Amino acid sequence: MPDAPPPLPPPRPRVLSGMRPTGTLHLGHYHGALKNWVRLQATHDCFFFVADWHALTTHYQDRSAIESNVYDMVVDWLAAGLDPEQATIFIQSRMPEHAELFTLLAMSTPSSWLERMPSYKDQVEKNRELATFGFLGYPLLQAADILIYKAALVPVGEDQAAHVEVTREVARRFNRIYGGKTDDSARILPEPQALLTETSKLQGLDGFKMSKSAGNAIAMRDEPAVVEDKIRRMPTDPQRVRRSDPGDPARCPVWAFHELYSDDATRAWAETGCKSAGIGCLDCKQPVIDAIQREQAPWRERAAEILANPKQVHWIVELGTERARAVARKTLKEVRVAMGLVY
Ligand code: TRP
Ligand code: SF4
Question: Whose CA is nearest to atom 8 of ligand 2?
Fold first, then answer.
C-alpha cells in the first residue's frame, strides 16, 4: 500500500493591518509596526493595505498629499522586507467591497457607538473640519476592512485598540441579528483580536513622539549623511552644557536611541562616560549613527532596486488586490445572503 499523504499543515491564522498614507515612513513606523509585519508574514496569512480612504477622512482637503504617498509607502514596505510572495499587499480604495460591507454594517450599528469613540470627540473639538460623516464613520470603515477578510489578528498600536474593540462589537451584533442558529465556529463574521504592538521605544530627535509633522523624524530612506547630521544636532542632557560637565542619560533623548540600537557593552560605555564626563556627546552619538546607517543599508538597496523598475510595484499591488478581492467577495456574498439581499 502506498504511504498515506502527509497531513496538510493547519491553515495559518489570518492577520490584517493597514497604514494611512500620510507621509514617508520613518524609523518610528518601522519599529512600531513594520518590523512586526515583516516578522508575521513568515508565520501568518498576512493582508496589509494602504488605508487611503482613512487618510481622506482627515485630509480630504489635501488630495495631493495622499496621492504622492501611496506608492512611496508601498516602496517603504517592500524595502523593509515585506515580501509579496508571502503577504498580500493592496490599496483600500481599489476594493469597493470594503465600502459595501461598511454600508451594510452601518444598518445595524448604533450611531452612539461611533459618537462616543474618544478619538472622534477629542479631534472634532480640536478641529471642526473633522465634523464630517466620513470621520464619524472611521471606526466602522475600519471594522469593514477587518471583517471582510475574517481576520483573526489585527496588529495595531495602543491608539487603535478601541477600534478593534468596536469591530468586535459590530461583528457580535451582526452575528446575533443575521447569524441564524450558527454555532461559534460558523459565525458569519468572526470577532478579531488586537495584536497590540509594544509601543515603540523610539522617540523623536527631540525626545517627543517621532512624527514627520513635528520635524523630529529620521525617514527610513534618509541618506547616511542626513542621518549623521540629524543625530549630531540632536539635543542632549540640558544640564550637560560643557564637555567637562557630567551628564545623566535619563535626561537625554539620545539615550532612547541607545536603548533600541546599542548592545549592553555600548550602553554601559555610554552611561559611564556620560556620568563621568569621560566622553563627549558626539562620541556618545557615533555608535547610534553607525547602527541606524547599518539598519538602513538593506532598505536603501532594496528601494533602489524597486525604483529602478517602478512598474513592478504596480504589479505587486495589482496581484495583491486580486488576491484580496477573491476573499472579500466571498465574505460579501455570505453577508448579502444573511441579510436577505439575494433576489
Ligand atoms: N486606523 C488605522 C491607523 O490609523 C489604519 C487602519 C485602517 C487599520 N483600517 C485598518 C489598521 C484595519 C488595522 C486594521 O493606524
Ligand atoms: Fe546624552 Fe550621551 Fe551626551 Fe550623555 S553623553 S548627554 S547620554 S549624548
Answer: 281
